[in-house]
């Protein structure tokens, strides 16, 4: 895969002007952006439409967790916007994930990715919600469930990529938020790793945010991340 296409830049902000400025600065360097709940709620779906109109791919990170009919409706709405990826929550179970996959069939370019365990969670957090297994075991359990439901791939931290690639095979999409550059603080991510380590382990895509979007020179930082992916 082309290294540029493996990098998804997260537009994690609540301001359309800030998001537009990042996209303008990066220009043709970046082809793939993540739009999450914060930006979508703050400014609405037009930000997604405009990215698609500019020829960008969009990862719409909704983490859908609702009754199957509502999830299917949201997936169809995402497909109509022209996004390339949308997330459902693996903890929602097979019914939710299967509904999402079925709804995506009318949009050949739309991939359904199942969130396994969010990158901020630890073993103790899982215990709090009644899950006795460690994070790594829960990630693999949900990934297998997602694959059986027909999902195109999963979302997980860099630390689980190798096990996931071995479990899911060569064709699954494995998208990794929680990547940090050498020397960078992991912030809220409990299970971080570098973009390079994630790709070497088998990640299909890495999601980078503030390291690029808040850099003094976002283009230079994007190029640095891209260069780091080359073995």
UniProtKB/TrEMBL annotation:
Descriptive protein name: Orotidine 5'-phosphate decarboxylase
Gene3D superfamilies from the UniProt entry: Aldolase class I (3.20.20.70)
Domain Orotidine 5'-phosphate decarboxylase: 6-224
Keywords: Decarboxylase, Lyase, Pyrimidine biosynthesis
UniProt family annotation: Belongs to the OMP decarboxylase family. Type 1 subfamily.
One Pfam assignment: OMPdecase
UniProt source species: Streptomyces coerulescens
Oligomeric form and interacting partners: Homodimer.
Record function comment: Catalyzes the decarboxylation of orotidine 5'-monophosphate (OMP) to uridine 5'-monophosphate (UMP).
Catalytic activity of the protein: orotidine 5'-phosphate + H(+) = UMP + CO2
GO function terms (MF aspect): orotidine-5'-phosphate decarboxylase activity
Pathway(s) per entry: Pyrimidine metabolism; UMP biosynthesis via de novo pathway; UMP from orotate: step 2/2
Positions with a binding annotation for substrate: 12, 34, 119, 209-210
Catalytic residues in the record: 63
EC number, as in UniProt: 4.1.1.23
Keyword Iron: no
